[in-house]
Amino acid sequence: MAIEQTSGRQRINIHGAIDLETGQTRMIEAETIDAASTIRLLESIEALYPLLAMIHVYLDNARYHHAKLVQAWLDQPGRRIKLHFVPAYCPHLNPIERLWA
Questions:
Q1: Residue 91 DSSP SS3
Q2: Residue 46 exposure: Cα atoms within 13 Å on the Cβ side
Q3: 17 three-state secondary structure
Q4: Which residue blocks in the chain are alpha helix, DSSP H?
Q5: Distance (Å) of CA 43 to CA 5, 81, 85
Q6: How far apart are CA 17 and CA 27, in angstroms?
Q7: Under a CB-based contact definition with an 8 Å cutoff, are residues 36 and 42 in contact?
Q8: Tens digits of per-residue pLDDT, 77-94?
Q9: Mean model confidence pLDDT for the chain
Q10: Residue 25: enclosing H or E segment and its boundaries?
Q11: CA-to-CA distance for 85 and 45, rounded, in angstroms?
Q12: Contact 86, 65 (CB under 8 A)
């Protein structure tokens, strides 16, 4: 009797954020993690906090976080998200890294 096996691990891409005050997480699954998935995550964060005038998001320096598409989205009128980039040499300052570990 033969048992079918998978050929390696199946990859799952998750883009996520942690609310540092509540510990609540916000995650989205994506085909690839890129500028478009970053925008989808930021949109979901804005939707989660409709009453906040400004939402501060701390993130790493991945290229897709700096993409022109993301910047154009942030520049739209009414956007309430401000990005703050953690220094590349300090991954311990990015709380999401502890979740991924």
A1: helix
A2: 16
A3: strand
A4: 35-48, 68-74, 95-100
A5: 39, 9, 18
A6: 6
A7: no
A8: 999 999 999 887 776 666
A9: 86
A10: strand 25-29
A11: 17
A12: no
Rounded Cα distance, 67 and 64, in Å: 5
Computed over its alpha carbons, how large is the radius of gyration of the chain?
16
Report the candidate in 10, 8, 11, 67 with the shortest Cα–Cα distance to residue 42. Answer: 67
Euclidean distance between CA atoms 14 and 74, whole angstroms: 21
Q: What single letter denotes the amino acid at residue 52?
A: L
Whole-model pTM: value is 0.80
pLDDT at 2 over 90: no
Task: Please check the confidence at residue 9 and state whether its pLDDT lies above 70.
Answer: no
- Structure token pair of residue 49: 């906090």
Contact of 88 with 58, CB cutoff 8 Å: no
Which amino acid is it at 42? Answer: L
Instruction: Pull the structure tokens for residue 94.
Output: 């990015």
